[in-house]
Design a protein that fits this description.
By secondary structure, this protein is an alpha+beta fold. The protein is built from 21 helices and 13 strands. 35% of the residues lie in helices and 12% in strands. The longest helix has 21 residues. The chain is globular, with a radius of gyration of 24 Å.
Length: 600
């Protein structure tokens, strides 16, 4: 690094130091204060708190127009009558953000960082909270209920509660407020909060790779992902957050050349979905990023994928909190959280300290069968407990290796019984659903901006949002005909020319008008054309009223699926119903999302 560059960095550092140490000014110019309320708990179920995020109208419009960029803006934060000034707000999420933009909705999923501008600032001891918009849960209750169940089964779990969210004078409606899995969370749950926290994404998240594979390039739809060019200075974590995030939020991005192209032609973000370029970046290290050491992760992967059966129990207990992992998987299978490791693979944090890993759940709004992986309704209700993976067990070594060891399987089944007798017992969970529904009902009646109508909200407490049809497509809780991964060269070339995509899967998230659909009919073979339309729109091959976002149409009646699932798990434990395929096939889900990635 040249001397001029060093001086620039040093000057930036001194300027930031004054921001991080001294108390700044609020969005209205008032003197900022450090807010801490040790005697109150924002995660209450006594009422629905009102949260207001106040930022300039110009910044709010910019946030909406550039939602996929997920850049921070300065704001003030009110929780009822408690104020924290000079916080940072940004959009968050992947599919939830994509659906919000597609629907031209104002119900953006948001994240608040209390710590970005001032390392001393917190809110009830937290540095970050997330606001989830209920895009795939018509009842708005799944997040809160599911986090509670994990916590009651002694799995380290984020706290969550329901709030009524406003931005400036705009009412967004009922959201779930969830604490972030970060340093304060680790301090509450672990004796040592200074270890490596990972949030692996698809491909990396299945843990079916080793150190030898770590830097192999990820390929999607036959196209290798380009490695992003990121100046290490931009990623430097100063305690409040990465230097690049801080400078952007302060409108100082021109201080570092690497930030100048952000948001400009050639650097425009067109989707919130992040695609890692190799397996180790896909592992998603969140802490100690200034000096990463992945040796413990590599050791875990080696044990999972290479250790002989004879020595596996002794070695896995050196690198994994096995008892906690068994409780994690018992809850995941019981409440049907197929958006985590046992299903698509992601939404599971891995926390390592002193070489030993623990699991932490995340993003529970699609529990109880909403994310079904193409498994039909009966298969969701009777999801196998002894083969609790959406696809073949050998694709998920963390589950496969643990439950292949008989003592671990027996302990796991003990935890399932504890789940049925405890937080998932019908005399506990059904009244809990009723209690939360009472809180939400008056808000749902008045909220015209929800993704679903009040009638849908009320009905989905007990009834499936969209009843099964003859086709039993994915929007009815079952699989649709599988689209081809690869098309003919002629079809692929035409897709690139007309839609700038290389696969039909990429068109699933694109709004298509009638002219687009007609064009597809001309460039695709007839079978491929009809299969795509069925995957895109359902059995009628065209948009069906009422249009509803994401996986919401999959939502089964909440109290009904809870009751049916409880009975099925009980019968499987008692041997009155099959608890597995008998040959490791898992539950027959479509694995297309995991299979579309390869590495070389």
């Amino acid at each position: 690094m040249g001397n001029i560059w060093k001086k620039v960095v040093f000057t930036i550092f001194l300027g930031l130091l004054s921001v991080l140490v001294l108390i700044g000014t609020g969005c209205d110019g008032a003197t900022s204060i450090r807010v801490s309320y040790p005697n109150t708990d924002p995660f209450t179920d006594e009422y629905i708190a009102t949260v207001r995020i106040i930022l300039s109208q110009e910044d709010w419009e910019s946030l909406k127009e550039n939602a996929y960029a997920k850049e921070y803006y300065k704001a003030d934060f009110w929780f009822d009558d408690e104020l924290v000034q000079d916080v940072a707000v940004r959009t968050k999420g992947n599919a939830s953000l994509l659906e919000t933009v597609r629907w031209e909705s104002r119900r953006f999923p948001l994240a608040i960082d209390f710590n970005l501008f001032n390392r001393a600032r917190n809110f009830h001891g937290m540095k970050k909270v997330h606001f989830n918009n209920g895009w795939s849960d018509p009842t708005l209750l799944r997040d809160v209920i599911s986090y509670e169940i994990f916590a009651k089964m002694d799995v380290p779990s984020p706290r969550a509660s329901l709030v009524d969210l406003w931005v400036n004078n705009m009412h967004l409606g009922v959201y779930t407020m969830t604490e972030a899995v970060d340093k304060p969370f680790l301090q509450r749950h672990f004796a040592n909060p200074n270890g490596n926290l990972y949030k692996p994404e698809v491909v990396s998240a299945r843990l079916d790779w080793t150190e030898e594979d770590a830097y192999k390039s990820i390929v999607i739809f036959g196209m290798e992902q380009p490695q992003p060019e990121v100046d290490p200075i931009v990623s430097l974590n100063l305690g409040g957050g990465p230097l690049g995030d801080i400078l952007k939020a302060m409108d100082k991005e021109d201080a570092i050349p690497a930030l100048e192209s952000a948001g400009k032609p050639g650097g425009v973000v067109t989707s919130p979905m992040k695609r890692p370029h190799n397996l180790i970046t896909g592992a998603g290290l969140k802490t100690n990023t200034n000096n990463p050491d992945h040796s413990s992760l590599y050791r875990l992967l080696d044990v999972l994928n290479n250790e002989p059966d004879e020595t596996f129990p002794q070695e896995i207990e050196k690198v994994l909190d096995v008892d906690e992992a068994l409780r994690f998987f018992a809850v995941s299978a019981g409440i049907l959280h197929l958006d985590n490791y046992i299903g698509i693979g992601h939404n599971t944090y891995l926390y390592e300290v002193n070489g030993k890993f623990s699991l932490v759940p995340w993003d529970l709004n699609m529990t109880f069968g909403t994310f079904n992986g193409g498994i039909r309704k009966d298969g969701i209700i009777n999801y196998y407990i002894d083969e609790p993976t959406a696809g073949p067990m050998n694709r998920f070594p963390l589950v496969d290796r643990l439950l292949s060891h008989k003592p671990y399987l027996e302990k796991y089944r003990d935890y399932l019984q504890e789940l049925l007798d405890g937080p998932f017992s019908l005399n506990v969970i059904l009244p809990r659903v009723d209690r939360l529904a009472e809180l939400v009902r008056p808000y749902a009646k008045e909220d015209t901006k929800m993704f679903y109508s009040y009638e849908d909200w009320e009905r989905c407490l007990t009834e499936d949002l969209r009843p099964p049809d003859v086709f039993e497509g994915w929007q009815a809780g079952g699989p649709s005909p599988m689209m081809p991964f690869f098309l003919s060269p002629k079809e692929t070339s035409a897709l690139r020319t007309n839609f700038r995509v290389s696969s039909l899967y990429e068109l699933l998230s694109v709004d298509l008008n009638q002219e687009d659909i007609n064009t597809l009919g001309e460039i695709l073979e007839e079978d491929n054309y009809h299969v795509f339309l069925q995957n895109k729109f359902g059995p009628l091959e065209s948009p069906q009223p009422p249009r509803q976002p994401g996986y919401g149409p999959n939502s089964l009646g909440l109290k009904t699926i809870i009751t049916a699932r409880w009975e099925s798990v009980k019968q499987q434990l008692n041997g009155k119903r099959p608890s597995g395929s008998g040959y490791g096939a898992g539950n027959g889900a479509s694995m297309w999302l995991a299979d579309m990635y390869t590495f070389k």
